[in-house]
Amino acid sequence: MAKTLWRDRNESLDPETDYVEIYQNLALYEFTWDLTQALSFALFRTYAVPSIGRLLDETGAFTRAVQKRYDDTALLLEAPFVHGFDSESGKAALRRINQMHRMYDISNDDFLYVLSTFVVVPKRWLDDYGWRALTDTELRACVNYYRALGGHMGIKDIPETYDAFMHLMDDYERAHFDFDAGGRRVADSTLQLMTTFYPRPLRKPVELFSRGLMDQPLLDAFAYTDPGPVVRRLSVGAMKVRARLLRLTPSNRVPTYTADLPRIKSYPDGFALDELGTFPVPGVGGCPVRHDASA
Fold it and tell me: Does the structure show a pLDDT above 60 at 197?
């Protein structure tokens, strides 16, 4: 039950060949809550790129059925690292993702940016709010995992290192972050959904807390009001206290799967991966990114 259990186990593995297992250990055991939050913020950042946020708004998937879209995204992204890219479940999830992506023709650059957020935002989240940072082995495994995921989706020119992903994300945001009414609607809908994961009296504080963790360029892109220094200090302070407390707890020995989380509400009776997501229907869109390769 040593607190270093998963770090030690990951350090015994090779990030060049065992990256799926390392990522699985991080996501299912060591940092389940942190990675869930970080990836939610990662996706949230993508709405601030008008070409992404506007099209997501036009599809309606993130405004008319945001709970289902949230659930489907989380469940489909989980399958490859739980079961492996070459497993039946992993292939089913990738096939479904690629089918949705082909519904729209968006630049490879936009999807490279989305992929970069999956690599960079969780690392920065753990640096700032985790009970420990990722080791070099774990960070390399995360890079390799998302390089493999991007390859299965047909993304071109994927960076090879964390630093390259980081520069890609930061440069893309500086060049493309801007206000768009559609992106703002998607952001509002998603932020409102996040508050429903908590009891009603806490929903306004949760919304303020979330804005307190947003950087200024992101707030500006959505034309969100800065919550102010007091809210920022309280939000960051609460996360730091949580991290200190977690250092005193034993390592988790029981995996936590996405379907077991209370915030996943769309499938109380179970689900089939090949039935998740959106399907081609006249007037109704799906995911805003097209890819060229099948799973």
Answer: yes
SS3 content of the chain, % helix, strand, coil (to 5): 65, 0, 35
- Whole-number average pLDDT of the chain: 92
Instruction: Give the integer Cα–Cα distance in Å for 117 and 195.
Output: 22
- Sequence-distant (6+) residues with CB within 8 A of 109 are 172
Query: What pLDDT is recorded for position 106?
Result: 77
Tokens read off for 156? 């071109």
Contact 257, 78 (CB under 8 A): yes
Nearest to 56 by CA among 275, 289, 264: 289
Residues 242, 246, 249, 251: what is their CA dihedral angle, to the nearest 10 degrees? 140
Q: Which of 16-20, 180-184, 254-258, 283-287 has the lowest mean pLDDT?
A: 283-287
Give me 75's structure tokens: 């469940």
Nearest residue to 142 (alpha-carbon basis) of 166, 118, 172: 118
State the SS3 of 165-231.
HHHHHHHHHHHHCCCCHHHHHHHHHHHHHHHCCCCHHHHHHHHHHHHHCCCHHHHHHHCCCCCCHHH
Residue 293 has pLDDT above 70, yes or no: no
